[in-house]
Amino acid sequence: MTAAAIAAAVRSGERRAATVTEASLAAIAAGEGEIHAFALVLADGARRRAEEIDAQVAAGQDPGPLAGVPVALKDNLCTRGVPTTCCSRILEGWLPPYDATVVKRLAAAGAVVVGKSNMDEFAMGSSTETSAFGPTRNPRDTSRVPGGSSGGSAAAVAAGFTPVALGSDTGGSIRQPAALCGVVGMKPTYGTVSRYGLVAFASSLDQVGPLATTVADAALLFDVIGGRDERDTTSLDRPAPRLASVVGQGVEGMTIGVLAEYLEGADPAVAGRIAQAAEVLAAAGARVEEVSVPEVRLGLSAYYLIAPAEASSTLARYDGVRYGLRVDAEDTAAMNVATRSAGFGAEVKRRIMLGTYALSAGYVDAYYGQALRVRTRIIDGFAAAYERCDALLGPTAPTTAFALGAKLDDPLSMYLSDVCTIPTNLAGHPAISVPFGTGADGLPVGAQVLAPALAEATMFKVAAVLEAGAPAVGAGS
User: Fold this and answer.
1) Residue 477: pLDDT above 60?
2) 243 lies in a domain?
3) What's the CA gap between 393 and 450, in Å, rounded?
């Protein structure tokens, strides 16, 4: 069942939240050993929460729009009294004293959190292989990666453990795993969803968003978590777009641009699916044309200066004094070094060093400053495209899911997995990945819809049309 259907059944009394929760926990028990979607399963807490919801229904109260819906939370979202590790050894044993705003909003909407999902350490990765808890496997083919860094959340949804999940997207970390696992994943406009309680990677890029089995469920989840939060200084002081009511309104009269640069280097089968997606939109009444935004070719280079630079600053707080792991040594400086050496994995160390170098005296303007100027060019390039188009279309990832271990020793190859998603984060715009058939290997392909800031409603209208017109899994190109 979809999240919307589950919530409707629980609110009406047709189903009990406890029954729904037990079904979710049973699915996890049956498949988690193979998939490893979770860093921590919260079975007892989920059961208690479900009983509370059933008691509310029995008392004639409305638990909310997500009543009884099982949800997986990425392990970088703070949960009061529950380990939140970012799948890193350096946060071993840390119990947050507060809930993230999005976690509070899920609770207020009646959701049942069943676990903290596995992720690349501190959200740094594209395959969920850098987790200190070990890799997650793609439910569509367990020899393949699920994408990352929100691979655990995407895998939980794809495996049927939960109908929805929350992830975070810094350079594509919701959309890329959604594409590789064959589910829906959305990155909202920067500032529309609170980052309070999201453990920071790169604060000017991070954004919380939904993963779901359907476009409508993603809209429902966004409507719950979106909106102004005074505890987040980057939160927009305006109402978040409301999306559940726009799904199904169609694309008649819209102009959709197929982003030429995103097809460069894409696997031919992936590019073929995007051509099919364009045909679906044209048949639904949209005007479809090719659009060029050459500035996006610079996105990867700019991102891997800006994001590591911000990470080198945000991760400086993990020093063995205040949080998690502490490795004792003869003095404080040695303790700091020993703790960070033992606590951080190779990819996190690589990015900290890259970012620190980019910010160092004599290099900050040549590297970090130049990357910020490139970011502005990308924003301007998108703005020019949106003068002609209501939304843009392209692949979410240039390939389908790759084999576990295939890119671990080749960081640059791994980084290229996010070449189609990173520009959106740099611009602060929304984007959504919708499953659209399979590649030559039978694995899912994601069609990505991009839109201007705060144009989520337009984006979801396009996404719903693509979802309705998507070829059956396994269908020929």
Assistant:
1) no
2) no
3) 6
* 283 shares its domain with 309: no
Instruction: Determine the residue type at 78.
Output: C
What's the pLDDT tens digit per position in 358-396?
999 999 999 999 999 999 999 999 999 999 999 999 999
Same domain for 218 and 269, yes or no, is: no
Which pLDDT belongs to residue 241?
83
Does residue 110 sit in the same domain as residue 61? yes
Beta bridge partners of 38: 117
Apex CA 73: angle with CA 70 and CA 75, to 5°? 150
**Which pLDDT band, with edges at 50, 70 and 90, does 44 fall under?**
very high
Tally of structural domains, the chain:
3
The answer to whether residue 32 sits within a structural domain is yes
Structure-token pair, residue 170 = 């810094």
Residue numbers annotated as active site: 74, 149, 173
pLDDT at position 474 is: 52
Close Cβ partners of 361 (under 8 Å, ≥ 6 residues apart):
none
The helix or strand, by DSSP H or E, that contains position 289, with its residue range, turns out to be strand 287-291
The three-class DSSP label of residue 138 is strand
Q: What is the mean pLDDT of the chain?
A: 96
First to last CA, the chain: 29
Residues 126 and 217 placed together within one structural domain of the fold: yes
Integer Cα distance of 370 and 363 in angstroms: 10
Contact by Cβ (8 Å): 448, 415: no
Cα dihedral across residues 262, 155, 345, 171: positive or negative? positive
pLDDT at 108 over 80: yes
Query: How many CB atoms within 10 Å of residue 308?
Result: 27
431 and 387 together in one domain? yes
Residue 131: helix, strand or coil by DSSP? coil
Same domain, 395 and 276: yes
Residue 272 domain boundaries? 255-294+379-469
Residue length of the chain = 477
CB 5 within 8 A of CB 220: no
Same domain, 128 and 60: yes
DSSP characters for 371-395? HHHHHHHHHHHHHHHHTT-SEEEEE
Mean pLDDT of 236-260: 93
**Contact at 8 Å (CB) between 455 and 240?**
no
- Percentage of the chain beyond pLDDT 90 is 96
pLDDT score, position 239: 82
Separation of alpha carbons 77 and 149, rounded Å = 13
DSSP string, 425-468: HHHT--EEEEEEEE-TTS-EEEEEEE--TT-HHHHHHHHHHHHH
Residues with Cβ within 8 Å of 40's Cβ and at least 6 positions away in sequence, in order, are 75, 82, 83, 115, 116
- Asked whether residue 152 falls in the same domain as residue 177, the answer is yes
In this structure, is residue 361 part of a structural domain? yes
